[in-house]
Amino acid sequence: MARELSYNQRVERSIIKTYRKAIWNPFVEACQNYKLVNDGDKIAVCISGGKDSVLLAKCLQQLKRISKTDFELVFICMDPGYNKANRRRIEENCSKLEIPVQFFESDIFSVTEVAGGSPCYLCARMRRGHLYAKAKSLGCNKIALGHHLSDVIETTLMGMFYGAQLQAMLPKLHSTNFEGMELIRPLYCVNEAAIIHWRDYNNLEFIQCACRFVDEYSHSEDGIGESKRQEMKQLIKDLKKINPDIEANIFNSIHNVKLDTFISYKQKGEKHSFLEDF
Question: Side by side, which strands form the sheet with 142-144?
């Protein structure tokens, strides 16, 4: 008689069985192709409470079990000012999914609400600094974030449409403020649509961002509000009706840059012109 699986075991099984092609294989592909996880690494997996970071935690737990690579994992969650309900939701999800998360507090939400300017950008920068600092205090050399393929595509488009530049999101970065620390994105090749399917398949409920700025677009008539990222999501959705391969094409394009066709480009802060080699 087959042993009945626990809820957590069923969730883990869904990643490597039901969503093997859509989630597990792209996750492993990113880790291998971009050399994200190496011998001797101690990785702080950053839990935000959303679907992406929790899936990331489960994938890395599975990789730890089966990989020949010798690495350590710790799971951290910064509470930037969640209300009690959202904090409780994160705690409950981590408990039933057997993610041994360590919480620590900050006042980021209260700071960004009065700072003006671009609150999401400021929040992301402050979050990252707190996460680096906490990870380093725990002896980690890397932090892992839940950015996925859809984030990469949307960031590329936002750079073109609103930043007047061609700029992608790298799968790993050296920290500029915390010496010896790196940021890695193991879900880099995983489409957000697959993550949503996985979430719904397992009847999981997560918080989004839990700040008032997210609420503004969530309750706006068009679902966009002032969020440029949501605007990019809608644009890609519309373009897929014409070309179903649009996401793959945009993603592959940042891996296949024809630099000698560009008028100018920047490398390590220095601008170069095609005229230099003309």
Answer: 101-105, 72-79, 42-46, 142-144, 182-184, 172-174
Question: How far apart are alpha carbons 236 and 70 in whole angstroms?
Answer: 39
What was the pLDDT predicted at 81? 83
Q: Which residue matches tokens 């990989």?
A: 67
* pLDDT, tens digit (0-9, with 9 covering 90-100), for 4-37: 899 999 999 999 999 999 999 999 999 999 999 9
Contact, 194 vs 22, CB < 8 A? yes
SS3 223: coil
Give 232-273 as a DSSP string: HHHHHHHHHHH-TTHHHHHHHHTTS--GGG-SEEEETTEEEE
- CA distance linking residue 28 with residue 255, whole number of Å: 18
Give the closest residue to 186 by CA, choosing from 25, 75, 12.
25
| CB of 48 closer than 8 Å to CB of 123 | no
Distances (CA, A) of 224 to 24, 51, 148, 154, 276: 30, 20, 20, 14, 43
Per-residue tokens: 265: 């480009």
Q: How far apart are CA 170 and CA 107, in angstroms?
A: 28
Kindly tell me if the per-residue pLDDT of 43 is higher than 50.
Answer: yes
**Each residue of 53-74: pLDDT tens digit?**
999 999 999 999 999 999 999 9
Instruction: Identify the residue whose tokens are 């350590």.
Output: 72
Question: 94: how many CB neighbours lie within 10 A of its CB?
Answer: 19
Mean pLDDT over the full length of the chain: 90
Total-model pTM: 0.90
